[in-house]
């Protein structure tokens, strides 16, 4: 957006950022921001094997996937940490932050477990937040939870959460052009509510993640 405005200024058009934004919306022009590599692990960090290969996932809370994605705004990057239940595609927890500290990740895990119980397995990539001492010690403190990590360079190993991020960005975020952390939080809260409770999935005959998650969990109980 800033580059377009600057190029217009060079051509003699005095135009502000908000007007550029409006014209971009009207013309369906989307701004993409280069972001950091969030899957890069720390040197010498311990990793764990990938436990989902050939695993039959048949119930909620059997496997959760956690990941971080970045959101570009005019004031800098904002980061969303989300946890998805692999079986139902229900988002069991998320947070929005303008930092990449491990505390943001551990807080989401604690809240998700407090609200929905413990998963049998929690899968992540090998990013520095997920190989950090704080994260590993937290997961191990729950004793029964197994840690699983994607193979190096294998984004498809965590495909459930990757698909959610793609839907979140293309169906809502890229259409709204948030400019502040507060706007990102509002958009994210509204989208996850819609995703969990209103957006049907074709693979489940258009039932919502909430219908699958809670109905199956009640049967198991």
TrEMBL record:
Single GO MF descriptor: nucleic acid binding
Domain Integrase catalytic: 56-217
GO-annotated biological processes: DNA integration
PANTHER family documented for this protein: TRANSPOSASE INSF FOR INSERTION SEQUENCE IS3B-RELATED, TRANSPOSASE INSO FOR INSERTION SEQUENCE ELEMENT IS911B-RELATED
NCBIfam families reported in the protein's UniProt record: transpos_IS3 (NF033516)
Protein name as it appears in the record: Transposase
